[in-house]
Write a structure and sequence with these properties.
Elements: H1 5-17, H2 23-32, H3 35-42, H4 46-58, H5 65-73, H6 85-97, H7 103-109, H8 111-121, H9 126-134, H10 145-155
Helix pairs in contact: 1-4, 4-5, 4-10, 5-9, 5-10, 6-7, 8-9
Length: 166
């Protein structure tokens, strides 16, 4: 699965506490995305929007808008499963146990691949497509080490004040 238990636990509580973006956050997020990508972003559940916004905001001063887009939209494939926090939690446990899953839970498990196809169709930057597809696994050859490190760091919960190494 690719993520540590502390990461998953933190994300669970982040999801439970998630509030919609306020007007200022929404305007900032919209400024980073074209209309098609904005529609994908706003089609996500509140918690995924909040997480994507935080991930993108961490990279706002890196000088690479494509990385911010990749960070903001890496979980867009979760939308297809239509699972709430309980369903996602059950799916995560079933993934960990390698137990049988319902079709919707398999969609949640496969959200990286689903998101990558969605982003590619929407014309997202290549790195956004690759990160969506691979963010739960190993770095693919098409994403340079430094970019991968930044994206993985941005995906971690919370809002640190500075970019690592920057």
């Amino acid at each position: 699965m690719g993520r540590s238990l502390p990461h998953l636990a933190h994300r669970f509580f982040e999801v439970l506490r998630a509030k919609p973006l306020d007007a200022e956050e929404e305007a900032l997020a919209k400024s980073w995305l074209d209309d098609g990508l904005w529609a994908l972003f706003t089609g996500q559940q509140t918690a995924d929007q909040r997480h994507g916004f935080h991930a993108g905001a961490k990279l706002r001063n890196v000088g690479r808008p494509d990385l911010a887009v990749a960070a903001m939209l890496h979980d867009v494939g979760k939308t297809a499963s239509r699972l709430g926090v309980i369903g996602r939690s059950v799916a995560t446990v079933l993934m960990t146990l390698r137990a049988p899953m319902s079709p919707r839970m398999r969609m949640y498990r496969d959200h990286g691949e689903l998101g990558a196809r969605t982003l590619e169709t929407a014309g997202a930057p290549t790195i956004a497509v690759a990160f969506a597809q691979h963010h739960q696994g190993e770095r693919p050859a098409e994403i340079p080490d430094r970019d991968w490190a930044l994206l993985i760091w941005a995906d971690e919960p919370g809002m640190p004040e500075r970019v690592p190494g920057g």
